[in-house]
Design brief:
- This protein is mainly α and 292 residues long.
- It has one domain.
- The chain has a 4-stranded antiparallel sheet.
- Helix 2 runs antiparallel to helix 3 and helix 4 runs parallel beside helix 6.
């Protein structure tokens, strides 16, 4: 029975009173519990095939509603339609104040619309009024060959500070644009072309894979993000998805609970989440998703 599967208990036990699914943030010399929009949204994404066919009495449905409450709490207080990694005024003391970002905006907006917390039109608002305004305008001559103008930058801010480009982030944004039926908007085609080029450029190199997704240090996360984008109606990424699947190593000996989910730039600080891996494993166990 699905309701008695051990992974269900692990997922539910990882949910905080505020609705977030906890993660562990690794700060070099210490590890702390953390609750953020990225991991919570990805857990919901991983559970989606099960949530859509869950019995009305399933505890997963109550957990979903509480998780959506948490995602709502991560909405930007200054930029309507944008979201950030933590709720405003709930950011840990060990890091500087982070701005709104394209990744959490795309992840949160899609989950909130999927489960009717926001109307479908909300995705168009997010695409037109938030994301399309934050693309890479200038390209340094020393930039890697896969990078290109017009793709989506990570931080939703205008001041001239470093703003990295991440292929996982761009895949999540492309998924939102496709879900909004806005594939014609500026940035979408550039993002898809960049991801395709970057995946080919990275090849089997773990180091290059980290370069193309500096906020997602493990290459499996790019596979998940591209797989999700294709399922949302991004056919341009099907060739990249085929390559990523061919390179995946299901038998690779590693503890999934210790595998990084996301990170600060280039992995100096990173997050792990047994709850996320449990959600993905649960979907795989019941035959609705492939585990890379």
């Amino acid at each position: 029975m699905l309701t008695t599967h051990p992974a269900i208990h692990e997922i539910l036990s990882a949910q905080t009173s505020a609705g977030a699914f906890t993660a562990q943030v690794h700060l070099g010399h210490r590890t702390e519990q953390d609750a953020n929009a990225c991991v919570t949204g990805l857990v919901l994404r991983g559970l989606r095939p099960l949530l859509e066919r869950a019995d009305p009495a399933s505890p997963l449905l109550e957990a979903r509603e509480r998780a959506l409450d948490f995602l709502e709490s991560c909405a930007s207080p200054t930029q309507p339609g944008a979201f950030r990694f933590w709720p405003p005024n709930a950011q840990p003391s060990w890091i500087e104040d982070l701005p709104d970002d394209a990744d959490d905006t795309a992840i949160c907006a899609l989950e909130l619309v999927r489960y009717e917390r926001r109307p479908a039109e909300f995705l168009r608002t997010v695409a037109c009024r938030v994301l399309v305004k934050h693309t890479l305008r200038n390209l340094d001559p020393l930039s890697p060959e896969w990078l290109r103008r017009g793709v989506f930058v990570t931080w939703l801010r205008d001041e001239p500070r470093p703003n990295l480009v991440d292929c996982c982030v761009n895949a999540n944004v492309a998924a939102l644009f496709a879900s909004a039926d806005f594939r014609h908007l500026p940035g979408y085609a550039d993002a898809c072309a960049m991801i395709d080029h970057a995946v080919r450029w990275a090849g089997d190199s773990r180091l290059r894979a980290q370069c193309i997704s500096p906020f997602y240090p493990h290459p499996a996360e790019l596979l998940y993000a591209v797989e999700h984008a294709v399922s949302c109606g991004v056919p341009e990424l099907q060739p990249a998805l085929s390559l990523l699947r061919a390179r995946a190593r299901p038998g690779e000996s590693e503890c999934l609970d210790d595998r990084p989910v996301c990170s600060g730039a280039y992995g100096r600080v990173f997050w792990t989440s047994p709850a996320l891996h449990a959600a993905r494993h649960l979907a795989e166990t019941f035959g609705v998703q492939t585990q890379p």
